[in-house]
Amino acid sequence: MSDKLRPGADDDTSSARRPVTLQDVAKAAGVSVATVSFVANDRRDVRVADATRARVQRVIDDLGYRPNVMAQTLQHGRSRFIGLVADAIATTPFAGQIIHGAQDEAWKHGYVLLIANTEGDTEAEREAIAMMLEHRVHGVLYSTWFHRAAELPAGLRQADVVMVNCFSPTQEARGVVPDERQGGRTATEALIASGHRRIAFINATTPAPAQTGRLQGYQDALAAAGIDFDPSLVRYAFSDQEGGYDAAGEVLETDATAVFCYNDRMAMGLYDRLRERGLSIPQDMAVVGFDNQEVIAAHLRPPLSTVGLPHYELGAAGVRVLLGLEAPDDDGMTIVACPPFLRDSIVPPALS
Fold it and tell me: Keywords assigned by UniProt (predicted)?
């Protein structure tokens, strides 16, 4: 179609052209405004000749007409937006994958994600939720940057909501969370497969689903392999590099030949302590972490074997549950597996 037919084409010096309207399309296609509305909104319950529908669609494409989203929202009761309210995941490198996964999955199904990162500010959270409800979002994902129990904000009790990387103790909403127990078992099984039977576990001191779940998984793997659980091989420390460094000293007083660390930062501290002692990894001590925090795990020497937190899939699964494309378990929870990332901090089974 000639540019002269485009609204505002006679004023190319203008930096802002007015939006294309239904009337513009109707005039260019030689049909009524009602017919354009039927085609633009894909109304199949109204009879429009195929040839007419095709002609109107061509004009819509040529002119770049876009339906009034707010008007559609008022008409149908819900918009094509999905809200995501988060405490701090947008500013944490690996947990930000939750947003990425949710955004990709929403787009795949014709929705756009509206993101509010509240940094834990209760008032900002309240205002963000109110804004999303005013825009009649299809539903809301409520997410936290680490896996924990969380109280559902009062404003979200009016909405269709799925909690991501967190859960309601009172089961007020559906939840999507990582399988911490399976992750702990997978980490320990990797060490058992390498021939180790005296495996230490450096756990966190802070009570959380990860603390209890990973310990249970560690015990599950030992039991399945016929290895007796030895409580003296379980140590507790702060979940940072210094915590791992301090706990490493205790581990070295045992007869452990391998260590499963609660997270990759602890493993980094363990690496430091082993290096100071003149010990090599994995020859003298095999090590597995948790989180697959790329900036740490892939760049340690040797690169750290670890189990990943499935943040991308948590976000994607949250959208699928919200849209009714995936059903949670009977308790309202969707549990997402934690995948292993095996690198050079353990000896492969064939070489052990």
Answer: DNA-binding, Repressor, Transcription, Transcription regulation
| Separation between Cα atoms, residue 206 and residue 44, nearest integer Å | 57
| pTM > 0.70 | yes
Alpha-carbon torsion (62, 66, 72, 73), positive or negative: positive
| Cβ(261)–Cβ(200) below 8 Å | no
Token readout for 30 is 């030689």
Looking at residue 69, what is its pLDDT? 53
Range(s) of the chain covered by CATH 3.40.50.2300: 77-179+312-336, 180-308+340-351
Distance CA 244, CA 237 (A): 7
Domain 180-308+340-351 has what CATH class?
Answer: alpha beta
Residue 71 above 70 pLDDT? Answer: no
Q: What is the pLDDT of residues 287-345, one digit of tens each?
A: 999 999 888 988 999 999 999 999 999 999 999 999 999 998 888 999 999 999 999 99
Omega of the bond leading into 169 within 30 degrees of 0 (cis): no
Domain 77-179+312-336 indexed as CATH 3.40.50.2300 = yes
Provide long-range contacts, Cβ within 8 A and 24+ apart, for 102-105.
Answer: 102/141, 102/164, 102/315, 102/316, 102/318, 102/319, 103/315, 104/316, 105/315, 105/316, 105/317, 105/319, 105/320
